[in-house]
Amino acid sequence: MWEYTDKVQEHFINPKNVGEIENADGVGNVGSIACGDALRLTIKVDENQIITDAKFKTFGCASAIASSSMLTEMLKGMKLEDAKKLTNDDIAKALGGLPKEKMHCSVMGREALEAAIADYTGVILPMAQGEVVCECFGVTDLEIIRAIKENALTSVEEITNFTKAGGGCGKCEGRLRELLVETAEGLPEQTVGVKKQKRMTSLEKIKKIEEVIEREIKPTLKKDGGDIRLIDVDGDFVTVSLRGSCAGCHSSRTTLKEYVEKKLREQVLESLIVEEDK
Amino acid sequence: MTVSPDQVVYMDNNATTRVAPEVLDAMMPYLTALYGNPSSMHTFGGQVGQAVSQARQEVADLLGASPEEIVFTSCGTESDSTAILSAIQTYPEKNHVVTTRVEHPAVKNLCDNLEIFTGRKYHSTRLHVEADGTLDVQRFKDSLTDETAIVSVMWANNETGVIFPVEEMARIAKERGILFHTDAVQAVGKIPINLKATAIDFLSLSGHKLHAPKGIGVLYVRKGTPFIPFLNGGHQERGRRGGTENVASIVGLGKACALAAAKMDEENTRVRALRDKLEKGLLTSIPKALLNGHPEQRLPNTANISFEYVEGEAILLHMNQHNICASSGSACTSGSLEPSHVLRAMGVPFTAAHGSIRFSLSIYNTEAEVDFVLEKMPAIIAKLRAMSPFWEENK
Description:
The complex is a heterodimer of chains A (278) and B (395).
Chain A: H1 6-13, E1 26-32, E2 37-45, E3 51-59, H2 62-75, H3 80-85, H4 88-94, H5 103-121, E4 132-134, E5 139-140, H6 141-151, H7 156-163, H8 173-186, H9 189-192, H10 202-223, E6 226-234, E7 237-244, H11 252-267, E8 273-276
Parallel strand pairs in A: 7-8
Antiparallel strand pairs in A: 1-2, 2-3, 4-5, 6-7
Helix pairs in contact in A: 1-2, 2-5, 4-5, 5-7, 6-8, 10-11
Chain B: E1 9-10, H1 21-31, H2 43-63, E2 70-73, H3 76-90, E3 96-100, H4 105-112, H5 114-118, E4 123-127, H6 137-143, E5 148-152, H7 166-175, E6 179-183, E7 202-206, E8 217-221, H8 247-262, H9 264-285, E9 289-291, E10 302-307, H10 312-321, E11 324-325, E12 327-328, H11 331-334, H12 341-345, H13 350-353, E13 356-360, H14 367-386, H15 391-394
Parallel strand pairs in B: 1-11, 3-4, 3-5, 5-6, 6-7
Antiparallel strand pairs in B: 2-8, 7-8, 9-10, 10-13, 12-13
Helix pairs in contact in B: 1-8, 2-8, 3-4, 9-14, 10-14
């Protein structure tokens, strides 16, 4: 059985904004029955370029339905400009995290949003113009490169978790590996992760970890009533304590691994392991 | 009788079963006072050895076999591996195995990886199944060659319950001098089996599928069939499987086999009637619901039904809200991204494969439980279809 957060369960059992908006300003259709999940997103945009309403219809598992429901909740009242910047990670985070094998559900949400906005603005999406790499699930190279960049993916397995590419017959595995290398080479140094990291002194490392926690992680957790404190750094082991509503929360482990650890790995050192002080 | 609010309605008996109370009672002395080693010389251990012998007899009786043909193992998977690896070691000059596209991973993954165990190249024929999940015997006949070391075909499929004509197939293999193994973990205890009247060389069974505990299995090895052990060690199981006997579980399995023999009629009348009621009820009350598998040539306890345009995991989790346990062939529940290999081998369309639910009953299910499921399912499917983008245009 999958371990779903309370938020995922809540949005799955009682999803918000199910349906289709009549005379919608933007419609986004992604996925197919063959793939196992599909989403139709409809949005209403007012003259001030604000999304006033969003509805969804989804065929898929619990996390696909929950991601769709959460997405529509986030969109309502959002400026179109801000909606354009919404990432799959934002959706997953709002749900308190998703099992890693289910990240593609949040990606489907973001793709439907892009398609709906493109439909509204009349722009043709570049993703559809890419070259199909995974024939089983119809995933293009542009979609894969984007997922690698946005989520700092480092393995074929992760690409499959985020885009489903490679999850069928597995024939495209070689091409996925190539895309990983090509994308990593084209990226600026700090986002590449494993390959091009300079050796840091312990002091530099601790300073950098502190900085990322204060600047990025803490403000995000505080939005949900939580808090975090750095306790110790020993080699690659980073000990933190979660406080406020994060402490003892059902999904605290997910927060720790999927969010705190991921952020620190992205921005400080790929080999870091984050643990909670018990 | 009704279903109480906190009652678990368990219809996932092809996954595992509850330990029968009589089985637990039979086991308890061997987990407490009677802890002796059956191989010991003293009476204290010797009496435990007698209990193992009795269990061996009870297993043999259910299968229509002799006690010497029963080898206790740790699980169905160990039994499968033992049989297949024994056969290919027996015939090192042969490089071909025949199996089906719908085998359990215990057989499928082993046959795909024989090279790792032997260092030699093997090719395996994986027999196609028809749209109703049945096997074509003629096609099987044509697949056999002089290079075939062993055939491994399940007696009944775990997902659809479809029964394969293994007795006829074993006869055909025998005429060609080819060993025949059947993974019968789903069939044993549910349908009558009489191995004496067949040409089957190896049969695997698993205790926890028939109300014995997990961690105990059996490999039946026909008298005279060449055999090479998988686990070498002591003289246990007459040198065919080393390792101190899992006494309590062996005793439990013996009891479970005796119970299964006594309740075989009930399984095939009352349980079958409950399954039929459930199946008919779901197919009539829910539109676009399809039965997967041959309607008659099937285990009496299994119903595999596809609800088109909705996804299996979502259905299961809604059922879970009502404490109803079943399983699904959808991609999302398998941990992979593709739906069940069994349904795909049958050519079940994707629109249906993703929404397949397997209900598997046991003698412990009641009519009240069936009625409860029949009451809850239509609303669950309707709710999910209301949010499916494919429903409106296809209903």
